[in-house]
Records
---
Amino acid sequence: NETIYILAIESSCDDTSAAVLMNDKVLSNVVATQAIHKEYGGVVPELASRAHQQNIVPVVDQAIARANIDKKQLSAIAFTRGPGLMGSLLVGTSFAKSLSLGLQIPLIEVNHMKAHVLAHFINDDSMKPPKFPFLALTISGGHTQIVQVNDFFDMKIIGQTLDDAVGEAFDKSAKILGLPYPGGPLIDKYAATGNSHKFEFPIPKVKELDFSFSGLKTSILYFIQKQTKIDPHFIENNLEDICASIQYTIITILMKKLKKAVKLTGIKEIAIGGGVSANSGIRKALMDTQTTYGWKTYVPKFEYCTDNAAMIGIVGYYKYKNEVFAQQDVTAKARYLI
Ligand code: KG4
Ligand code: ZN
């Protein structure tokens, strides 16, 4: 039983990350977050690619140094092939290919959305993996989907957003309230002391297990415009209650669809992932279902929720064990279904 060392690289959006795994354990997980996008109120693709170019070598060096191994011990290199921003993906893809050539070790391509789902299988004392089959709710700034996971490499999307992702709903609502980017964590913070039933926003009617969040943003915008005409200080006087009401609406939408998914599939093992799963209201709502509905719920450690290379590494490990490797002519894929 050989020990497998995987170097993993993630560069799909605005975080440059590298990790080293020893089998299913994380030895290091380095993330360089690009601060530049804050000034623009969102991710600027062109700037993201440039920052990846600058960060990738130091980030990989640091991941290897922190893992305290020699490059020569690496068994394979795993990288994010997609989905994501093309310019960003190209940096990680080209780097991974070159390094695999240089070190003469296999290359493994990884789907970023699959990685969010399989992050639960990282061997960590603070986490317990869900049992197959389970439902994975992936909620981030770029994605919102419910995936039925039958096995490591047998999963299918059973519901997804038709427009904005949940993270965008948080960030765009925050922007309307004059909060800086990314506003999700700030809404979470103010919501903690607010009354979630003070204001009411409509729950969209969307077919089956799909989601829609663009209507929510519009209704918040109209509501705020109307109220500030009456009281110019409406936002500052009601910030906590507005945030709590927005968050409550988003949680209601998510829980409604999860309940429907459980009913349709009969699966009560629920795992969440993606940056928005940091939200304390969502975490609480999900934990509550353990007693109210008898669901088993799983939330990964925060560093494995947001974009990170460790989750790319765990997929790399399972692909290595199954001898699923990529060829040197593999290309990045901006649109890449799970
Ligand atoms: O997974 P992630 O780090 O990057 C993407 O792949 O998008 O997710 C970032 C998103 C942002 O929209 C951010 O506002 C949101 O996650 N977010 C939160 C919280 N923490 C991060 N949204 C609500 N409450 C939070 N506590
Ligand atoms: Zn992501």
---
Amino acid sequence: KESSEVPAAKLKPVQEQIDLTPPLTPELLQLAESIKEETLSLHVSVLKAMLPQAMRAKYKKSVFPGAAVAKLDQNLQKHFAESKFIENWDEWIKEASEEDKISAAKAIRKGLLIVEPKVTTKDAAKKQLVYASILSDADAENHIGELNRKAPKQAAVLNFLQSSKEEHTAKQLEPYGSKAALEALVKKGLISKNEAVLNRDPYEGRHFETSESLTLLPAQKEVLSDITRVIDKKIHRTFLIRGVTGSGKTEIYLQAIDKVLRNGKEAIVLVPEISLTPQMVERFKARFGARVAVLHSALSKGEKYDEWKKIRDKKVDVVVGARSAVFAPFENLGIIIIDEEHEASYKQEESPRYHARSVAISRAEHYNCPVLLGSATPSLDSYARAQRGVYDLLTLENRVNDNAMPAVTLVDMREELKSGNRSMFSDDLIERIKDRKQKGEQIVLLLNRRGYSTFIMCRECGYVPQCPHCDISLTYHRTNQSLQCHYCGHRETVPTRCPECDSDQIRFFGTGTQKVEEELHKTFEDLSIIRMDVDTTRRKGSHEKLLTAFGKGEADVLLGTQMIAKGLDFPNITLVGVLAADSMLHLPDFRAAERTFQLLTQVAGRAGRHDKTGEVLIQTYSPEHYSITEVKEHNFLSFYEKEMYMRKMGGYPPFYFLTMIHVSHTDLQQVVQVTEKMSAYLKSSLSESTKIFGPVASPIPRIKDRYRYQCMIKYKIEPKLMEALQELMHSYQSDIARTDLQIIIDTNPFMM
Ligand code: ADP
Ligand code: ZN
Ligand code: ZN
């Protein structure tokens, strides 16, 4: 602005112009407002979630004399005499003498010095120097001829730059001549030197085979035509595609995107973090090449920023990414696709607690474009919506190659124990592993570790070491023989005698992947195993490396946790074994059965995807539970009906809405008091039909010395809810700021 109504004395000069284009579009700014309201989050936390980490501001404190410098004591006067403020206070105070520190603290208390936070943003782009020839070919030839005798290196560089006609970095030019040769050429005015933005491409140097659209099968064609009709009409619809694994959903996504791009619009594809494997990325890069940006957590901050910048600068029109890619700053969206829509990773479990599915639908409404939700095992919430016509249901019943679904066998582990088999492998599993090994076929073994502890226990008195700060058993880590708390990081050595009864029978209990690997080696001498769990995949790219090795046939067995259940597509896998299928069935979470069914169906889908038929063997202690029997029957619909009945009886989503309030404090009495007061307030201000449960202690009642209580609100229609919750947060704001109190409101809880 050239002028302002604000008095000139109150205006401050502009220090620096940070962005030429605003990083967030008007649509995203508006979206941030509504997410803030719906999730009761701070506005700034929503904006942060929308931006790449590299763009976040850093805070630096600077200090100003609040009154005349003369009022400061002599010690301080000299520091403020020349400059009116100290720019980097934190640095200054670190280096200051004791006297200065004391004077400064006094001055701040008296208001003679004012501490102000100063936001600094660094340009997240990375720049580098590039060189290029600025001569015509004829001129260059003359100069090269002259240089050849006196300065052959300069001649070589010039020759290369002239023939390539592109900009190059000093590093790229090293084979031709040194930096000195380059500078000499610049000085002679023969080549240019400029600063250019470096593109940190995570897939640099990788070649992706190009792939053309396949001719769709009739069932696929039908699904695609329903989608393209909506694309052509320029209206919003949400489609739910339920299609068994290998039914050709991804091919439909690709062709729908193709259609959208032809209309000059853009596409967002969300994939669960863990299945953003090279195999998946490759399919999109192969079809759309350099038009694709990829966003996931294995990229460095800089790479993420550069990929994001390509979207903002309209250099790409497709983005494939994990949850937060739903905020890709496109301005002409034509479709949003969410693969494996039932996945828990689409819900952010920290503020802002948004679900990518509902954000996607809001954005698609704005742009009048479709959302495609795809899954072999849709979430109950989505499937129920499709049944009621809120979403359009599309179904693919068969695999593309007409392969039968793999045969599933259930093994009752209680029977194994009765017949004297105390090992973690049933006789059936052992026999089948031997068979596959002999045939040179591959095996996937899933250890479902969620809800399955790896603790040590005294066999005499039952004592289990607990974390002194959290109410949870310590986890045994074999590699460094320690016990660790997975919540607070507390670590101690493994006791050799029980602290309760002094018995020496205190030992490892439960099963970890390392333990299974050991047992496998004991049972089968020459079995080669690739283990995939948090320990073996911590390093960047290791997940990918292990999968590639397994795909090349470098091991007989791929053994792992949940992370192996998705995305694998290797023709030689003919056996999938599941150890402890029911371990998460007993979690205190109403979605436990749904998660069990989804995981088992997913992993079963890894077997026999190509010519060879596959087989699945599930070891369980609850072979009669419908979440396991329906996996055997490959019957989603039957599972859905049974689970819906249970939800209805229990009064859970999708029949009711839930909101959870989590309260924590280092003082137990405080937590109970606050939670009780909140519950009473809600009871008095909400409708009679709304039920409020609690306060009750949380499933893990203490973490990091903080006591945790919770309240659950269950309702069908509750127009006063948001207002009441806002009121609650408001009334505790100062307590939260002043004390240890923490209140979390989750308006759409996913993990209980
Ligand atoms: P989903 O995403 O449902 O698991 P995909 O799209 O990955 O299924 O398809 C499974 C396999 O079948 C892939 O290898 C894919 O290339 C192939 N495929 C998909 N559609 C066709 C088609 N119309 N014709 C031939 N092969 C296809
Ligand atoms: Zn004991
Ligand atoms: Zn702990």
